[in-house]
């Protein structure tokens, strides 16, 4: 990838993002523990900001096509922080899917290359499911 060097700042950002995902997962596993969910959200956002920079993060969240996802993600984030963990996570998850839906095809190509998981994802049920969503994408 041109212009993407893995310096220490990006390594720390990716680590924080990973810990954010881990804490969020643990928060869901432990019956929507609002402390773990809040910590996961904060670490995830901080990791993204450190990885791509503050300017890149702000421009990503404020793109006109990302407004709906950004508002839902922020509203869900706020609800989790204020103690409404289940409702907040549902809203936040929907916002997350809207925000990062453009990355799913790239992630899918990566997952196809994982040895066992790739064979599972190439089964007819999964390919028809992924093809259905691939047709809905609107070119930007």
Radius of gyration: 16 Å
Structural class: mainly alpha
Percentage of residues in strands: under 5%
Q: What is the count of helical runs?
A: 8
The count of DSSP E runs of length 2 or more, i.e. the number of strands, is 0
Distance between the termini: 21 Å
**H-E string:** HHHHHHHH
- Name the average pLDDT: 87
The parts where pLDDT drops under 50 for at least 5 residues are none
What's the helical proportion of residues?
over 70%
Total of domains: 2
Oligomer: single chain
Q: What sort of overall outline do the alpha carbons produce when their principal axes are compared? A: globular
Q: Profile the largest sheet.
A: none
Structural notes for this entry:
It is built from eight helices and no strands. Helices cover 77% and strands 0% of the residues. The chain starts with 7 loop residues before the first helix and ends with a helix. The mean pLDDT is 87. The radius of gyration is 16 Å and the shape is globular. It has two domains: 99 residues; 39 residues, no CATH class. Helix 1 runs antiparallel to helix 2 and helix 2 crosses helix 3. It is mainly α.
Provide tags for this entry:
140 residues; globular; mainly alpha; 0% strand
Structure summarized in a few sentences:
77% of the residues lie in helices and 0% in strands. It has 140 residues and is an all-alpha fold.
Strand-helix topology:
Layout: H1 8-29, H2 34-52, H3 54-61, H4 67-81, H5 85-99, H6 104-112, H7 115-121, H8 124-136
